[in-house]
Backbone:
DNA sequence: AGCTCATGGCGAG
DNA sequence: TCGCCCTGAGCTG
């Protein structure tokens, strides 16, 4: 469900709601019960995101590592009786609000050393201060893999998912099949800068908008996009619809188990 | 009611 | 490359 912007947004909301306050911690479903009972009543110290990974720190350097995967969800609810407790892995709450975790790929209690093990496998995150795009470039420039494949590799740019991949490749007019080693340093830096521009916007707006002002519905005289994910995008989930720039049909194909969207005309093979 | 698909990522072969 | 994990929204009947 989430790309990095959602996780960073949540980290900020958790800080806002809970940081330095004692919280209730429960696992109504039972699958995180042992850890929950250990944390219950402790002070929540901080929350931080790295790519799609969320770390919630409690007293005594205890970190809850959460990764939502494709279908996991973190939602704010009023305190009180939790809805459908049989799927509620984790609830963190005060008398004011509750944060409910369902269907995560990962929910585990980690030591600082274990947190380090997780983050050491992640590349630079465009949403983190001082992220170094050269660390991604080192892998990209040496790789025979396509840029489409590389952009979803979390060691290269942590937090990028299927939407940002499709959109940033479109915006930079880069064909998804371009091998990494054929991407110039200049082009890589343009991709990175664009992500570093789009993703904070996504955190702020709580949706992914990638369409430039001159191509927006208002400017083009078309209806705003009605999409469950919200956000105006060029190609993601727009298969067989006209490209917002050139009018040719947006393409889609299955690639490494995911859907890949692109415009065959705007994104020329090089 | 049942089916399919989804903003991920892992491990088996 | 495929199957699998986990949940729930949006269809189809």
Residues:
């Amino acid at each position: 469900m989430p790309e990095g912007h959602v996780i960073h947004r949540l980290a900020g909301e958790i800080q806002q709601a809970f940081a330095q306050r004692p919280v209730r911690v429960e696992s109504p479903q039972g699958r995180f019960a042992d850890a929950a009972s250990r944390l219950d009543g402790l002070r929540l110290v901080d929350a931080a995101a790295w790519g799609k990974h969320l770390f919630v720190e409690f007293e005594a350097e205890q970190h809850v590592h959460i990764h939502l995967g494709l279908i996991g969800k973190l939602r704010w609810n009023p305190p009180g009786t939790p809805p459908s407790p049989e799927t509620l892995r984790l609830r963190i709450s005060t008398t004011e609000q509750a944060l409910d975790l369902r269907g995560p790929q990962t929910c585990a209690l980690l030591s600082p050393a274990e947190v380090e093990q997780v983050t050491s496998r992640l590349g630079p995150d465009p949403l983190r201060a001082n992220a170094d795009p050269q660390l991604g470039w080192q892998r990209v420039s040496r790789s025979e893999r396509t840029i489409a494949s590389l952009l979803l590799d979390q060691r290269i740019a942590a937090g990028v998912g299927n939407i940002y991949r499709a959109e940033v490749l479109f915006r930079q007019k880069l064909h998804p099949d371009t091998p990494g080693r054929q991407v110039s340093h200049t082009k890589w830096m343009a991709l990175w800068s664009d992500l570093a521009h789009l993703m904070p916007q996504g955190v702020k707006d709580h949706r992914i908008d990638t369409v430039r002002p001159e191509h927006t519905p208002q400017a083009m005289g078309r209806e705003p996009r009605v999409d469950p994910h919200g956000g105006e995008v060029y190609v993601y989930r727009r298969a067989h619809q006209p490209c917002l720039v050139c009018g040719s049909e947006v393409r889609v194909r299955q690639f490494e188990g995911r859907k890949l969207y692109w415009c065959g005309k705007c994104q020329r093979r090089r």
User: Anything to note?
Assistant: Residues 1, 69-73, 87, 89, 102-105, 228, 256-257 of chain A lie near DNA strand C (CB under 10 Å from a C1'). The mean pLDDT of chain A is 95. The CA atoms of residues 27 and 89 of chain A lie 5 Å apart.
